[in-house]
Design goal:
398 residues, alpha+beta, Serine Threonine Protein Phosphatase 5, Tetratricopeptide repeat, Thrombin, subunit H, eight-stranded antiparallel beta sheet, six-stranded antiparallel β-barrel, 14 strands, elongated
């Protein structure tokens, strides 16, 4: 049987790319991107980080941990529309940040007041405040959906990047997690995620050291919470803004999930598994958690444990095709061909036209000395994916 790395993970990537093919990458940068900078008593810039202007005057969002970095060293906080996004000669004078309206360590997010900052209405149409009455950008749901990201890059100005939604993960009582794919491989430290219409939908969590730069994780932004905070008085920046404890971000379910998802190398597997176990302790197990844990265990040779995870994932969600598929591949790798055949058969009951499942089932049938049934699977695959069927016939040598 082919290993899970070549089978189940490749199948998951195919699902994402198929969805993405129908959705072109989002166009162009958004001019709502800001640069937040801090200056010391001598006027020297000691901090720069990404920020984002909201569609109400005088409001700007920033990642909490970068914004509060080196707090004892700086006295003034200012925000400026990023000249790199506005075009040559379009720079503007910096605007003073006066108040902290909201600090949310679980999202690594801070809402600031900067009187004089104009409202940004990129992507909104309708009422005078730049967005439809009661409207809020809904978090993306479809794998492969085109997104726009704004990230810190090496601690300097914000950089716009294109992205796609890779996965949506429920994290128990906390915010759901958006795993996004970054095609340019540039990674994303702190920043924000927008949908293809340039609506703000989430904030990017800080990645762990050694995290995969092809991905980032973000949590949705609750616009109602921001509106409520902006309706009241804030606290002076000098009194309120302080770096959050590392544990406040990294020990939440979303933070633990985010770290685990970005630790993708095999030599990081044990660290990722410990993080996933910590999620299970906080929120209980789920089919997504069991799937992620099973894949990590299989990749480092813990096949029996992976089989247990995939079997439990299938029990949690009997309609999750990939749980049955992964279970079949893992069982086949362990030489348990009759059980693998049953797993693939049940996977095909969920998705009869999944080509890789027909492929893997035919391999399992041949390994179990059921050549006639394997040939039938080749015929079925021929009607779905002729090229893959040719590869299968070559591999099986009927």
């Amino acid at each position: 049987m082919p290993p899970l790395r070549a089978a189940a993970l490749a199948a998951g990537a195919l699902l994402v790319l198929d969805a993405a093919a129908a959705s072109p990458l989002a166009p162009g940068p958004t001019t709502c991107a800001m640069e937040l900078s801090a200056r010391d008593a001598s006027g020297n810039t000691v901090l720069q980080t990404v920020a984002y202007a909201l569609d109400r005057p005088g409001l700007v969002l920033a990642p909490l941990s970068p914004a509060a970095r080196l707090r004892p060293r700086w006295q003034r906080l200012q925000t400026t529309p990023d000249p790199a996004l506005l075009g040559p000669g379009a720079g503007r004078a910096p605007i003073e940040v006066t108040e902290v309206l909201l600090q949310d360590p679980s999202r690594d997010l801070v809402l600031l007041r900067a009187p004089g900052l104009a409202a940004c209405n990129a992507g909104w149409e309708g009422t005078g405040d730049g967005r439809p009455d009661g409207a809020e950008a809904a978090p993306p749901r479809a794998e492969g959906e085109a997104l726009i990201g704004i990230r810190n890059r090496d601690g300097y100005r914000p950089r716009v990047f294109q992205a796609r939604l890779d996965q949506v993960i429920a994290t128990g009582d906390g915010p759901m997690l958006l795993k996004i794919r970054i095609p340019d491989g540039g990674g994303a430290a702190s920043g924000f995620v927008l949908d293809r219409h340039q609506h703000l939908i989430g904030s990017i969590l800080p990645p762990p050291p050694g995290g995969d730069r092809l991905f980032a994780c973000a949590v949705p932004i609750d616009r109602r919470e921001l509106d409520l905070a902006a309706s009241g008085a804030g606290r002076p920046v000098s009194d309120a803004l302080a770096p959050p404890s590392v544990d406040e971000v990294s020990r939440t379910p979303a933070g633990l999930w985010a770290q685990a998802l970005l630790l993708t190398r095999d030599d990081q597997a044990d660290q990722a598994l410990r993080l996933l176990d910590a999620v299970a302790t906080l929120t209980g197990e789920s089919d997504l958690l069991l799937m992620e844990r099973g894949v990590r265990r299989f990749r480092i040779g813990r096949t029996d444990s992976a089989i247990e995870d995939f079997a439990r994932a299938a029990q949690f969600n009997p309609r999750r095709h990939l749980a049955r598929f992964n279970l079949g591949v893992a069982l086949g790798s362990a030489g348990r061909y009759p059980e693998a055949i049953e797993a693939f058969r049940r996977a095909l009951e969920i998705d009869p036209r999944h080509a890789q499942t027909h492929y893997q089932l035919a391999l399992a049938l041949m390994a179990a000395h059921q050549a006639d049934r394997a040939r039938e699977e080749c015929d079925s695959l021929e009607r779905i994916d002729p090229a893959l069927a040719r590869d299968l016939r070559t591999a099986l040598v009927f």
